[in-house]
Amino acid sequence: MENSQYKLLVVDDDVGVRQSLVTYLEDSGFVVYDASDAVAGIALFNDILPDLVITDLSMPHTDGLTFLQQIHNILPSAPVIVISGAGVMGDVVRALRLGATDYLIKPIVDMEVLVYAVHKSLERSRLLVENQLYRIELEEVNTQLKRHIAVLEQDQRAGHFVQQSMLPVSPFYAGDYICNYKVVPSLYLSGDCIDYAFIKQRYYAFYLADVSGHGSAPAFVTIWLKNLVAQLVRLKQVLVQFDSESDALIELLSVINSELIDMGINNHLTIVIGILDTHTDTLFYIVAGHLPLPVLLDQGKARYLTGSGKPIGLFEQAQWQVQKQALSDHSFSLILFSDGILELIETKNITEKEQVLLELVEQTEGSLDKMSDHFKLGEATKLPDDVAMLSIRKVVDPC
Questions:
Q1: Homologous superfamily in CATH for domain 3-132
Q2: CA separation for the pair 193, 222 (Å, rounded)
Q3: What does pTM read for this prediction?
Q4: N or C: which end of the chain has fewer CB within 10 A?
Q5: How far is 170 from 202, CA to CA, in rounded Å?
C-alpha cells in the first residue's frame, strides 16, 4: 500500500519534536494527526482509529505507559512506537512488554530511521491481522469439515464398493492360462486399476494402470477408464476386430489419452497394456510411463521386460512403441506391479529396489499370495501408496 493510505497519530508534549516528526512523516506521504498529551491523544485515537501511534514516554499528567495501556484496551492490535530519552530504558522495556512494536531514542538524528520503524511496525501489524483472519477462516473450515466427515466416509465406502464390484473375476482360467490379481488401496479408494479379458478364445488382453494422486479423484479416473475401455471393446470392437495386435494397442491408448486430456483434470496415469496370443505364445505390450517394468518369470529366473513411453493424459501428440516378446511353450508367469510395491522395499536406491523385487518373484515362484504375505498386505492398516499386482501364468502339464 502507498504511504498515503496510512493514518498516523503522533503524541508528544514537546512542540518542536512533535512538529518535526509530523512534518517529516507528511513529507514521506503519510496522513498524520498530532496531539500534545495523552488525554488529547486518546480522544483523537477514538475519533480517527489510526493505523499506527508514535508516542513519547515522558509526558505530563498521563505518562506514555498509561497511554499505551489505554490504546491497547481500545484496540489491542494497534501498533505503537515509543520514543524515550536515553535515561529511561526501564520504561522502554515495560512499554515493549505492554505491546509496543518498536522504540526510538531521542533525539532522532536520522528521520529515515523513523520511517523505517513505521514501515516495519505497519507490516508486522498487517501480518498479525492476516494471521488472525486466517485462523478464523481455518476454524470455520474445520467446523465444516467436521460436519461433512461422516458423509465423506460414507461416500468413500460406497466408492470402494463400486471399485471392488468392477474388478474382474480372480482367478480366471482360459486353457493353459490362469490370471489373478491383488489390489490393496492405501485409503478407502484406490488409484490402481486392473482388468483383463479373453478374446476370441485366443487373446488375453490386459492392463494395469496407476492414476496419479490419492483419494477420490484418481478412484473416479479408474472407474472412467474401466468404462471407457469396455465401451471401446464393445462398441468400436477395439481389441476384437483388429488387423494387428500393435495397431489395436496403439488405437486404444490414443483414445484413452485424448479423452483424459479433454477431461481437463489434473490426474494422469501410467499403464502397462498388452495382448497375449495364446496360440503362438507371443506377447505384444506397451509401457506408458510405468514402473516397475513387467516381470517375466521363466524356468525359475525372473527378469524385467523392456519398454518405455510417455504417461497417459499429459501430451496430446504422445506416441508409444509396441514391444513384442516371444514366450516359452512351457510354464511361465508374466507379472505386473504398480509402483506402490517399490515403496514397501526398504532400500533407498531405485535400482536396488527393483533387484530386490526380482529376487522376491523368484523366491515366491511368482505367487501373488506369497508376495502379499511377505509384505503383510493383509495386515496393513496404512500403506504409503496403493499396491496392485497382476499375474498371467501359463501352466503346462509336463506329462
A1: Response regulator (3.40.50.2300)
A2: 6
A3: 0.61
A4: C
A5: 19
